[in-house]
Amino acid sequence: MKLEAQKRSDGQAAALRREDRLPAIVYNSGLNLMVSVDRRAFDKVFRSQGTSSIVDLEVDGAVHAVLVKQVQMDKRLRTPQHIDFYAVTEGQLVDVHVPIEITGTARGQREGGMLDIHRREVHIEIMPRLIPSNLSVDVSALAIGDSIHVSDIAELLPAEARILDELDRTILTVVPPRLAEAEETEAGEEAAEPEVISRGGEEDEDISPDGE
Q1: 141 is in which domain, residue-wise?
Q2: DSSP-derived pairing of the beta strands 114-117 and 121-126
Q3: pLDDT digit string, tens, across residues 55-101
Q4: Helix (H) or strand (E) holding 175
Q5: Checking CA distances to 99, which of 22, 122, 131, 171 falls within 20 to 30 Å?
Q6: Do 8 and 79 belong together in one domain?
Q7: Whether 161 contacts 200, CB under 8 Å
Q8: Domain check: are 63 and 110 in the same one?
Q9: How do residues 13-37 score in pLDDT, each as one tens digit?
Q10: Residue 74, SS3?
């Protein structure tokens, strides 16, 4: 998916945000390029591609294959403030976290159990253009007590991918009714606890490589 960007100068971040543009940086070991992107255009691309898919970022006619490495958010408004794009090199392996999309309703859920999800992504190393957008995991056949581990979803990945997570790490489990009820009660008690306000009321800080 393509996203257009414009070069920018140092110190323009606040002015760009007022114009509904987001300051960003494109970098790798040999590149450090300050740019800006249209906020709405980035939002559309990010919702579609996330952090695990290649974006073709066009800057003054030059196209850089990039991954969204980091999006710095306003803590109060939950809106993006700055983006770090990592420019990948053709033929270079990259490590990414691929989202896991859970589909179906487990048999154990219909029997009163609950789906306890431990992880929603898997960490892999792969060539950039082979990165899957997500992994679809069907839980329909799972009974109470059944689990899915990282090793169980290896076949869903491209053959060229190398899994960086531990293979015995649990992705999800169908827990028994009593355990499900205990977890729901515990979650409700935690939600009822008063919010702890941190001291100082710190403002957001932009910690991007260009320091804006």
Answers
A1: 94-190
A2: unpaired
A3: 999 998 899 999 999 999 988 888 899 999 999 987 889 989 999 99
A4: strand 170-175
A5: 22
A6: yes
A7: no
A8: no
A9: 889 999 999 999 999 988 999 999 9
A10: coil
